[in-house]
Write a structure and sequence with these properties.
GO terms for molecular function: endonuclease activity; exonuclease activity; metal ion binding. Helices cover 34% and strands 24% of the residues. With 340 residues, the chain is of the alpha+beta class. The longest helix is centred in the C-terminal third of the chain and has 27 residues, at 228-254.
Length: 340
């Protein structure tokens, strides 16, 4: 086999840099953001690092060069991460009477500031949710208005964390409510709220989370133009807050004897520390029954999945859907059908 020419040596050097970056990203779920907050930014770039290493692998295979082994080994080491990024389409499923369907959606204050042109966005969101016929609805960035009404739900629990802006979170359901509560994140407009609901003869805790926002503008070009030091510092601080918020959520679950479902906007990827902690003793509905990239946030061509539904390991996921065609917010709604 011929030695590499100068061009391919340069290509392999670049390949080595991206392979090292991917290896480093594999470690991030095990490193608290408070330890190295600036490194946590890499977790959002995991999809890109995986794809780039796949491209290098294909390049070396076409060239019939042994250098393909580098990206091959690195990708094999992170095979579970690939499953978090992409899933082959699952079989279609028809909801059964004993099943529970949960819908989670960051509604971006129902387009309060006209981020999306048109006066019908609020009604479109309401109609979409009603047409999906969920048993439980978890809304993040909920805006308290008199015209926000969902027909067909007996119970509503809303917590407004910013009284001036009148937004917060809400949970709607038809299941009898046994208990409810709000975790009240410190120094944050974000929050987690929960309901204990009675399903048949069983009680489950549904936690609607909205972790600290990263305040990312959903355009790659604008993201790149922001000063690097300022961007990394701001995001690092958000990741540290998320770590504390997840600890608070886990403390709440520790004191709960019921099976639980965690849903909402993590503002972080499935390759992050906060995701790994939240997913302990839970099944990621996307990894169980999702398809394609499961994209939940509008960030140009990058398939960011920062919203999730995590159900107790004692439950069974029957179906998971994301709706990238529903463009009424900067997030896309997700649903999970599961049984106890």
């Amino acid at each position: 086999m011929k030695p590499l020419n100068i061009f391919n040596k340069l290509i392999f050097f670049i390949n080595s840099l991206f392979a090292t970056a991917l290896l480093l990203a594999y470690l991030l779920p095990y490193i608290p953001p408070s330890t190295f907050p600036f490194l946590s930014v890499l977790s959002l770039g995991m999809p890109i690092l995986l794809v780039i290493n796949i491209v290098f692998l294909i390049y070396w295979v076409i060239k019939l060069k042994k250098q393909f082994l580098l990206s091959t080994l690195v990708l094999l080491l992170g095979f579970n991460h690939i499953l978090s990024l992409y899933r082959i389409e699952a079989d279609k499923y028809e909801k059964q009477p004993e099943d529970i369907k949960l819908l989670s959606y960051n509604v971006r204050q129902f387009n309060r500031y006209n981020w999306i042109e048109g006066d019908t966005v609020t009604n479109q969101i309401i109609h979409f949710i009603e047409n999906e016929k969920p048993d439980i609805v978890c809304l993040q960035e909920y805006h308290k208005r008199n015209d926000i009404k969902f027909n067909g739900f007996k119970y509503k629990y809303e917590v407004i964390t910013n009284e001036g802006e009148r937004f917060g979170q809400a949970i709607y359901t038809n299941y009898p409510v046994i208990n409810k509560g709000s975790l009240e994140f410190e120094d944050s407009n974000n929050n987690a709220i929960y309901l204990d609901v009675l399903v048949n003869k069983d009680t489950i805790r549904v936690i609607n989370i909205h972790l600290e926002s990263l305040k990312i503008i959903p355009k790659v070009t604008e993201f790149q133009e922001e000063k690097r030091e300022k961007l990394v510092s701001r995001m690092g601080n958000s990741f540290k807050k998320q770590e504390a918020q997840v600890k608070q959520i886990l403390e709440n679950l520790k004191d709960c004897s019921y099976k639980s479902v965690i849903s909402g906007d993590m503002n972080n990827s499935a390759f992050s520390y906060v995701y790994r902690k939240l997913a302990q003793d839970h099944l990621d509905a996307f990894k169980e029954k999702g398809k394609s990239f499961g994209k939940t946030f509008d960030f140009d061509f990058i398939p960011l999945r920062i919203d999730a539904i995590l159900v107790d390991e004692a439950m069974k996921v029957k179906e998971f859907k994301n709706f990238p065609e529903v463009k009424y917010s900067d997030h896309y709604p997700i649903t999970c059908t599961f049984s106890l």
